[in-house]
Amino acid sequence: MAAPAQILLENVSHVYRPVRGREVLALDQVSLQVANREFVALLGPSGCGKSTLLYLIGGFLPVEAGSITVDGKKVTGPGPDRGIVFQHFALFPWKTVRGNILYGLERQGMPKAEREKRAQDFIELVGLHGFEDSYPSQLSGGMKQRTAIARTLAFDPAILLMDEPFGALDAQTRGLMQAELMRIFQRTPKTVIFVTHDVQEAVYLADRVAVMSARPGRIKTIVDTKFDKKAENIFKERVFVEKVDEIWHLVREEAIKAQGRRST
Amino acid sequence: MAVRHVTTRARIKTWPAKAARILPLLLARCFSVAALLAAWEILARSGIFTPFQLPPFSAVVLRIWNDGAAGDLWINLALTLYRALAAFAICVLAGVAVGTAMSRSGLARWFFDPIVSVGFPMPKIAFLPVVILWLGVYDLSKITMAVIDAIFPVIAATVIGIQGVERELIWSARNMGASERDLLRQVVLPAALPQIMTGLQVALPLALIVTVVAEMLMGGYGLGGAMMTASRFANSTGVFAGIVEIAALGYALVKAMSLIRRRLLAWHPEAHAPSTV
Ligand SMILES: Nc1ncnc2c1ncn2[C@@H]1O[C@H](COP(=O)(O)OP(=O)(O)OP(=O)(O)O)[C@@H](O)[C@H]1O
Ligand SMILES: [Mg+2]
Hints:
The structure holds two protein chains of two kinds.
Chain A: E1 5-16, E2 24-35, E3 39-43, H1 50-58, E4 65-70, E5 73-74, E6 82-85, H2 97-107, H3 112-125, H4 141-154, E7 159-163, H5 171-187, E8 191-195, H6 199-205, E9 208-212, E10 219-224, H7 238-263
Parallel strand pairs in A: 3-8, 3-9, 6-7, 7-8
Antiparallel strand pairs in A: 1-2, 1-4, 4-5, 9-10
Chain B: H1 2-45, H2 57-70, H3 72-104, H4 106-119, H5 128-135, H6 139-163, H7 167-175, H8 180-218, H9 223-232, H10 236-264
The structure holds adenosine-5'-triphosphate (ATP) and magnesium ion.
């Protein structure tokens, strides 16, 4: 790869040590390089450590084994340069949709008029017009998810860590959001690590797809998926279908392994 | 504009319907109390009890009315209310502060945890003689007694509330650039507010109860003191008047607290459910 790695993971392992119960080795010697402005999709069976990996890059969990650097600097804590969209949204329930989106902009010290306008732009973008003053408890799962996406996009991080950001959306909304995301990245290019269970989505959005093994999580294979995706019926093109098929088989193998271990 | 017009008309149209729906509910809710009061009145007039043992409710109401006209009622009511609310305010500030410190600093937890564990289940009224010895029998000692009792539920609720805050909420705030100082005020306390409010809803009636008990035991003005005075003069109507006044005051305070809760927690899913109390 010609471009220098912006995110560099070297032999990162992570063990959860709950106060009660047994230790879990969630990640085992994971190494990964993500170039500046690259879009990497992360696939793998449930419980293989995808969220954990994002938490480590985000600086929310301490890196205890191995090293993670972003722009050459060791990750020691969270920062607005790495925006995360949590799998379970993590919206502030006491703030409205608008309040949630404004929070990050306020923390950045953006002037009031400007941040109000920016928040409104992102509300429109994710199709939540008319729900600006609703609280999260009044929203559907998909609406919460769109609020969470808008909240993170609004403060414009250089790196986006997205944990199944479209998981709660119906197929149509999902398609629209994917297209919207691609448009945003064309305007303001970003480095993205994107967790998903949807192989088609991964192949469509990503430059590379990393398939993780069942727990303890490792990067099993990385598949290059950078090809021209502008065609009208891209989902039916042969290159596309073949890539989906290849990755689908890799993921399926791991899912069976994870399943098998669970039942023994 | 058109939309607003329609909703206004709809509201006017449904208002009598709404009243028709709510009124029976309201009556039904008051029914048990009304029945109890009626039974009291009938029993008192039946001759089973002497008026000294059980004065009729109407006589008690008349007595309250006269006390109100004379002004005694208001002095006693105001004093009891002042003591209970002062104690409650101290409990809110100190209780939330101690609870927060306990959840955030190991040192504070090490120091306060044994005190709370021993103090919470203990009958704090046992401190009364000591408090009288140290602080006398006036406002300060009555308020102190109420604080000693009512602060524990606030501390416990704050600790539990803060412990229950999801780590992802804190992470997402830090992700958006919140500092450690921002976190407490902007994320931790709002997220723990439903639990803290529950603690406060326990603490307020407790503060009132202990205030009245302290007034009864220490004497002086206040609803509790007035009841003991009436009892000393064998004025049974006065004693029962005190009971009714305390019940009414307690109800008003609890009701006010649940209204405040609904306002503060308008964002909470519970706010969309119909009220029960
Ligand atoms: N807080 C925790 N304490 C203990 N173990 C945990 C904790 N969080 C996760 N784990 C364990 O770590 C492993 C990886 O969890 P993680 O959430 O990263 O998986 P995931 O790949 O994101 O799964 P999913 O696709 O279901 O979201 C899981 O097997 C889980 O048992
Ligand atoms: Mg996950």
